[in-house]
Write a structure and sequence with these properties.
The protein has 249 residues and is an alpha/beta fold. It contains eight helices and eleven strands. The chain folds into two domains: 56 residues, no CATH class; 151 residues, Rossmann fold (3-Layer(aba) Sandwich). The protein has a six-stranded mixed β-sheet, with helices on both faces. A three-stranded antiparallel β-sheet has the order 2-4-3. A two-stranded antiparallel ribbon has the order 1-5. Strand 3 and strand 4 form a beta hairpin. It binds iron/sulfur cluster.
Length: 249
């Protein structure tokens, strides 16, 4: 019998209490690597050299993490010797690289926010995590968050995927069809920096190369609660936990 079945019976309800209460159920997040101080500069350099996408930078004994490029392979956690530190949180939404400040939508959106999702070349992982927000565990309708199939009624654009050349035009058309005020969130490493696809003749290298992205939700893919945190930040119900500088370290 599944853990979630017993958990539901024990708690009496299926839906998470987040954001009213912290969500600490095992398995709701893969966590993230943290900046780590090693015993020697050699150990930090070893950790940096083991990252397949160069998301770890050694600075003396420090190993700094760039969450914008991290693909969550966890090699630095289980394959490194010694490992970098790991934290099991999910409130890691950060300001987009091109922004210097963030102003949330006004309070009227706190109980009615309509979200349009554009698959701009996604592999399916980030889309699947977004889809889970509608299941009984996350149940985002209770928070006044609704998905919409049309940009005409959308307040927020969630972009997943590195933005392939074929999707650049449709993505721009979707954005321009949305009414003001509107926000754009890049969900997942591919939508933030292009991920493992990078910037090529076939890939724009992230939504920020095409649209004015406001917020980024790192992860490959980010768990549903991390995406939910980003939506709550948009409406001012949660604050940005990581500054741009801290998130890159
Ligand atoms: S989890 Fe992220 S930082 Fe660690 S090795 Fe993988 S890509 Fe690099």
């Amino acid at each position: 019998m599944s853990f979630w079945f017993w958990n539901g019976l024990k708690r009496g309800i299926q839906s998470t209490r987040y954001p009213r209460l912290p969500e600490t159920t095992p398995g709701v997040t893969p966590g993230r690597p943290m900046a780590t101080t090693f015993a020697s500069a050699e150990e930090a350099a070893h950790a940096a050299s083991g990252c397949p996408v160069g998301a770890i930078t050694a600075a003396g004994r420090e190993a700094l993490i760039d969450l914008r490029t991290c693909i969550h392979c966890q090699r630095c956690r289980f394959g490194g010797s010694p490992p970098v530190e790991w934290v099991n949180d999910f409130e890691w939404t950060q300001l987009a690289r091109t922004q210097t400040s963030f102003e949330p939508l006004n309070r009227s959106f706190q109980r009615s926010l309509h979200i349009m999702v554009v698959d701009a070349g996604d592999c399916g992982a980030c889309l699947r995590e977004i889809k889970q927000l509608n299941n009984p565990l996350y149940n985002i309708h209770r928070l006044g968050l609704f998905f919409t199939p049309t940009p005409r009624t959308a307040d927020v654009l969630l972009v997943v995927g590195p933005v392939t050349e074929n999707m650049r035009g449709p993505l721009e058309k979707t954005y321009h069809a949305m009414p003001q005020p509107k926000k754009v969130v890049a969900v997942g490493t591919c939508a933030i920096t292009g991920g493992v696809f990078g910037r090529t003749f076939a890939s724009a290298g992230g939504a920020g190369m095409v649209l004015p992205v406001d917020l980024e939700v790192p992860g490959d893919p980010p768990p549903p609660l991390a995406i939910l945190h980003g939506l709550l930040v948009l409406t001012g119900r949660k604050s940005l936990q990581l500054s741009q500088t801290a998130a890159a370290s």
